[in-house]
Design goal:
heterodimer; A: 115 residues; mainly beta; 4-stranded antiparallel beta sheet; globular; B: 114 residues; 7-stranded mixed beta sheet
Chain lengths: 115, 114
């Protein structure tokens, strides 16, 4: 069955330091992978996606993610964190092997960036 | 331009009541999704529409949940005989084409069943 795991409930990082938010997935076919961010009192916003092609994808606000097929991971990264990056981050996957349209979301990782 | 809107933003229902939640997607968006988000959890897929066709309803938790999108734009999620476990935020999202495109989310409807 398809699933997404975000092993860290919370990530703390100092402003200016690199950040990583981890995501692993399990699918039967090829995955479509997404990262979304939720700021306080705002709706979910798209950050980036991997469909095919280059394993390193770049998205909004300086974020990037690397698709690693052998490790079934899609970790979100940013070279230098900002206080304004503090938010709730969700990894999501659509399993192209099922023929369905379901997008599965992880439980979320709360990122705190300290000044 | 206008984003995805949902109404009402908050709904309190007594156990056993029926509720209807509305979603206005971005104009021209073919795909529409409904999700249920419990406190502290990620969104859980309920159902998917492509235009007016409901192509995937595998996430609807019971036959008390029903969704429609009769003209391929506005969608309504109806919950009959609400139960306390239905309390959650219900999110609607739309996307331009097929479901591999990024989704634009509405602010959600927070449903509380007493």
């Amino acid at each position: 069955a398809q699933s997404v795991a975000q092993p860290e409930d919370q990530v703390n990082v100092a402003e200016g330091n690199p950040l990583t938010v981890k995501c692993t997935y399990s699918v039967s076919g090829n995955p479509y992978l997404f990262w979304y961010v939720q700021y306080p009192n705002r709706g979910l916003q798209f950050l980036l996606k991997y469909i095919t092609g280059d394993n390193l994808v770049k998205g909004s606000y300086g974020f990037e993610a690397e698709f690693n097929k052998s490790q079934t991971s899609f970790h979100l990264k940013k070279p230098s964190a900002l206080v304004s990056d503090s938010a709730l981050y969700f990894c999501a996957v659509r399993d192209m092997g099922t023929g369905g349209f379901k997008t599965i979301f992880g439980a979320g990782t709360r990122l705190f960036v300290k000044a | 331009g206008a984003g995805v809107s949902q109404s009402p933003r908050y709904k309190v229902a007594k156990r056993g009541q029926d509720v209807a939640l509305r979603c206005d997607p971005i104009s021209g968006h073919v795909s529409l999704f409904w999700y249920q988000q419990a406190l502290g959890q990620g969104p859980e897929f309920l159902t998917y529409f492509q235009n007016e066709a409901q192509l995937d309803k595998s996430g609807l938790p019971s036959d008390r949940f029903f969704a429609e999108r009769p003209e391929g734009s506005v969608s309504t999620l109806k919950i009959q005989r609400t139960q306390q476990e239905d309390s959650a935020v219900y999110l609607c999202a739309s996307s331009v084409g097929d479901s591999h495109n990024e989704q634009f989310f509405g602010p959600g409807t927070r449903l509380t069943v007493l």
